Amino acid sequence: MHSLMTQVRLVGRRLARTPMFTFITLLTLAIGIGANSAIFSVINGVLLKPLPFDQPERLVGVWHTAPGLGFKQLNSSPSTYFTYKDETQTFEDSTVWQSSSVTITGLAEPERVQALYITSSFLPILRVQPTVGRAFTAQDDAPKGPNNVILTHAYWQRKFGGDRSAIGKRLLISGEAYEVIGVMPETFRFLDTTPAVLLPQQLDRTKAFVGGFSYQSFARLKPGATIEQANADVARMLPMMLNKFPMPPGFTVAMFNDARIGPNVHPLRDDVVGDVGKTLWVIAATVGIVLLIACANVANLLLVRADGRRQELAIRAALGADRGRLARELLGESITLGLIGGALGLGLAWAGLRLLVQINPGNLPRLNEITIDPLVLLFTLGISLIAGVLFGLIPAFKYGGPKLETALRQGGRSSSQGRERHRARSVLVVCQVAMALVLLISSVLMMRTFQELRKVEPGFKNPQEVLTLRISIPQGMVKDDGQATRMHQEILRRVSEVPQVVSAGLTTSVTMDGNTSNDPIFFEDYPTPEGQIAPLRRYKSVAPNYFHTIGRPIVAGRDFTWNDILNLTPTVILTENLVRVHYKDPNLAIGKRVRERPGGTWREIIGVVGNEHDDGADQKATAVAYWPIMQRDFWGQKIQTQRNLLYVVRSPRVGTPALLDDIRKAVWSVNPDLPLANVRTLEEIYKRSMGRTSFTLVMLAIAGIMAMLLGIVGIYGVISYSVAQRTREIGIRMALGAREESVRGMFVRHGLLLTGIGVAAGIGAAFALTRLMSSLLFGVSPLDPVTYVLVPIGLLGAAFVASYLPARRATVIDPVQALRSE
């Protein structure tokens, strides 16, 4: 232990004597290690950590596939829920749930909050119980059961100050009175939801039918049951569902058989993580390459440092110092640097993660679980040690062995170095350039992807001028459907009269906001074959002026009018890509008729609008049917009214608090109990939809720039060191009449040769590695020729500058002084 402490003190003294070397080395390592620790923290929090429930490996998401309808993932329905409860052999229990928003009044200002509608089995399956009060029972969950509500801990604290007397109090939720019966634990988290209240689902088995796949479901497997067995069990039960429950109006068993509904049971964690894993692993690999480049750079610095100590090490070896001890000393210094760099990098990682949580890029799931935990600390310690050993082995092997005897014979001032002494540093530079090229190509491919995405016409214009906000008129507040629609109409009129509001409209969902609903559409002119379901299309409901407000052109026909809506005229508007499935010219579709189900009311196509990329700019334009916000005989309902609507408001004042205040006054002038929810600009929605691409682009761009800088620094260092070591040779050449251009060219050619070899190796590696990121690209090939030409040219240009600067310094050497220096 005494020997170890002595060794540590000696290393500390040597590092203190060279503060610039120590600073540059530690900064390089801190950046490389910190970046890797930060991205590992994200991967650990998002992908590796189990869900915060008891035995989370037994929790599974219960989904379905419907290849006949083009669905890889289909939700659950009341009929599947009841069937699985009755017939399962692998589920300990199962549940269905929905996330929605509700209006709460009576507690200061009215507000719109997120709610989870759950069955009584939801919390027992998660093995979570309220800390105050009780959970839902089967009686609470029964049809027409009591109106009870459970509060989440955050809402309980915010609205009741954590007072236990909140139990038994009543809340007015969507116009109906609910009694508070419980409060959830502070640690309760469910997937990526942020609910304020939990409400009973209250499904009615007598009203269930085959269909209505709009519920999410999960289950707990029985002990010893596997996911494969669960999928087989669901496949066994699905045919039972067709016999247990009636078909929806106009549908037959043959239609559902044609849809080929099958099981898709998978770990519940996948429901929150989704496909973000691909992005994170690509970024992790990228940041790992940056650390390797940093290690190569530090190894070069240590080679220079060890080369300056050749005489010292040689004398110690001649006096009997064990060569292994010298190698251990050099390696100990590098490991010490690695550990200190790792500690500093951990600080950078902590700061980076705090920034990441604040900006929430790329819609990262489980963001609140991304922390510096013991596993991250262990990972940081591991890569710090590995990095220390990695960049320390080269000088340890090179200067801790027999070659020290040669250094002793050469004396303190040697002639120009031989190639062998340059070889290790040159190889490191070649590796740096190769790895930097891979990262630069990857980042440029993402930049080109972002450019291609920006060229896509998403379905709206100037989104920074459009404000969106959601207003719901619950049935408990206004019972009559027509009155609720007329109230929305009046609110829209008042909002349109707000100063500098250019236009305003209504919809159930704006482009890219994530609210999706899909159902079939049957064309009268192109009847669907008997026993088949028509292709599913996106459904939205809108009111007049919506398309004008967001900047979507009407290609043919006309928009809805309020007379169409209030008079319940059976009309519909379709997107151009949906119409072109059957009609070459959108004008030919005007006057044709469609319906949502066999036997339903035919509805006239009165307009065709431009396409919208509702699933994101990187996806194909979505085929959408726009229905009026109130209509008759839709899916068998006498009158269907959309009460929960999104207001879109175009104004140059968007972004100012004054506009929102004016809109709030306009709404409350009609009904003071209506809260404004989900207030955000259309540009925010658009940027959020592109968040993952932006996040990946920024991370790869930062990594690419860091890699290029480190690579250029490596080239500069090699050429500078070569100039310093060949001072006498340069002096002789200059004394014998060598031209300055010739001397400069000698060093520039050396730098470009190393870069050229690195570029050749990097292109080969990029060909292989960029294919792995093809799923992240849009509108550009992983082997994009423009990228593979421009990036190497740019890197060679930077290498030329890095080589020219020290080469130029060589030509100002005084030959007389150079000869005297030897």
Our measurement of the CA-to-CA distance between the termini, rounded to an integer number of angstroms, reads 44 Å
Radius of gyration: 34 Å
- Major sheet: 8 strands, mixed
Strand content: 15-25%
Can I get a quick summary?
Helices cover 50% and strands 17% of the residues. The protein is of the alpha+beta class and 822 residues long.
Describe this structure in words.
- This protein has 822 residues and is of the alpha+beta class.
- Helix content is 50%, strand content 17%.
- It is built from 26 helices and 25 strands.
- Strands 14, 15, 16, 17, 18, 19, 20 and 21 form an eight-stranded mixed sheet that branches.
- A hairpin with a 2-residue loop joins strand 7 and strand 8 (176-183).
- The longest helix is centred in the middle third of the chain and has 37 residues, at 323-359.
- It is elongated and about 100 Å long.
- The relative contact order is 0.12.
Structural topology:
Layout: H1 2-17, H2 19-48, E1 59-66, E2 71-74, H3 78-87, E3 91-105, E4 111-118, H4 122-126, E5 132-133, H5 138-141, E6 148-151, H6 153-160, E7 170-173, E8 176-183, E9 197-200, E10 216-221, H7 227-244, H8 253-259, E11 262-267, H9 269-273, H10 276-308, H11 310-318, H12 323-359, H13 374-399, H14 404-410, H15 419-455, E12 466-472, H16 481-496, E13 503-507, E14 518-520, E15 522-523, E16 536-542, H17 546-550, E17 554-557, H18 562-566, E18 571-575, H19 576-579, E19 593-595, E20 603-609, E21 624-628, E22 630-634, E23 637-641, E24 644-650, H20 657-668, E25 677-681, H21 682-689, H22 691-725, H23 727-735, H24 740-769, H25 785-810, H26 815-820
Parallel strand pairs: 4-9, 6-8, 16-21, 18-20
Antiparallel strand pairs: 1-2, 1-10, 1-11, 3-4, 3-7, 3-10, 5-8, 6-9, 7-8, 12-24, 12-25, 13-24, 14-16, 15-19, 17-20, 18-21, 19-20, 22-23
